[in-house]
Every structure is written in structure tokens, then in C-alpha cells.
TrEMBL record:
Domain named EamA: residues: 24-161
Entry protein name: WAT1-related protein
Record keywords: Membrane, Transmembrane, Transmembrane helix
Membrane topology: Multi-pass membrane protein
Compartments (UniProt record): Membrane
Chain segments annotated as transmembrane: 12-37, 49-70, 82-104, 110-133, 145-163, 195-215
Entry GO CC: membrane
Main location: membrane
A Pfam family: EamA
Amino acid sequence: MDVAAVDKKKKVLLAEGLLLPLSMVLVQAFTMGALILSKLAFNVGMAPFVLLAYRNLTGAITVAPFAFYFEREMMKKVNLKVWGWISINALFGIVLAMGLHYYGLRATNAAYTVNFLNVIPVVTFIIAIILRIERLKIGTCPGKMKVIGAAICVGGTMVISMYRGKLLHLWPTHLLKPELQSVGAASSVPDHHNMLIGTLFLAGSCLSYAFWFIIQVHLA
């Protein structure tokens, strides 16, 4: 292998090393943006499953042409067993995980909801160990790092959930209120705010996301 090829390979590895962390940061930024926009939609009266239908319909229309072009050979491998796993995957990932997440978001707030998103990796890790899909291996360095990472996720979530600071308004403040009230008139948008019910919805969403990630192993 000549020097030029070695340099090119090093540049590719360096680019991948930079793009992977950057892509993870962008995913988190897009997730937070979608979370806030979803909360604003619920505050003005949109139903969770209506937003869920619009979201997935838009995503399907956008991704379908690329899937048919780049993954058309995969259609030869599709059978009843595959369709069954796809249906189970959609049930846990779309109907349960996202549906319960939206109902929990409508009943609580964006800052509270994001805590449950941060706990999903920990719950997935614990369930995978219980189902013997993954081994802990606490005596090895990777095993110790997994435990430390899980503890950091839980600790960070607890700190954020207990923190109380000043509200930062980046848009008209009336959009942040569950009820839109005008002078001398009541709002036509019902108030769904209930922290207890919202927490139960979010906990169910967290479990559904965990099982969704585990189910995807069978589809990989």
C-alpha cells in the first residue's frame, strides 16, 4: 500500500471519528426541537394520535423512495415471519412507545418528559440483562463502563428533574399554557395536565422503547 492510500485511509477514519459524535449531537438537537414543537401542538388542542399519524405519514412519504431504490433487493427476503416481526416492531415502537410518549408529554411538560428519554438506555440495558440477551461481565472494562454509564444517566436525570430555574421564553408565552384564555371567555382547548397520569404514560413509553430496541435485534 502506497503512502497516498495510507493518507487517504487516515483522512477517512478521521472524518468518521468526527462525524459520528456530531451526528449524535444533531440527533439530540432534532429530538429536543421535535419535543418542544409537539408540546406546542398539544397546547393548542391537537390530539396525540393525530400528530403521530401526521409524523409517520410524512416520514413514510419522505423515506419510501430511498428505501425502494437502495433497499429493493431486501424485498426478496420478506416473508410472513418477517412481516410478523415488523408488525410487533411497529406496535412497540410506534403505537405504544411514541403514542404513550405523546400522551405523557401532553399531560406534563417538555422538561419533565425528556428525563424519561434519558432513562431509556438504562432500562433497555437492564431488560437485556434480565432476558439474557446481553451479559454484564462486571469484571471486565466494558462491563464496568456500562455500569458507570448507567449510573451517570440515572444521576443526571435525577439532577435535571429536581432543578428549578427561571423560565426562558423563546416564543409568545401564551403558547406555553395548556389553556388559552381570552378576556371574559373560557378556552375551548381542554386541560389535560395531570402529572401522575402523565408520569405513568411516560413510564410505559420508556418500557415500550426498551422492548422496541430489543425487538429490532430480530430484524437486523
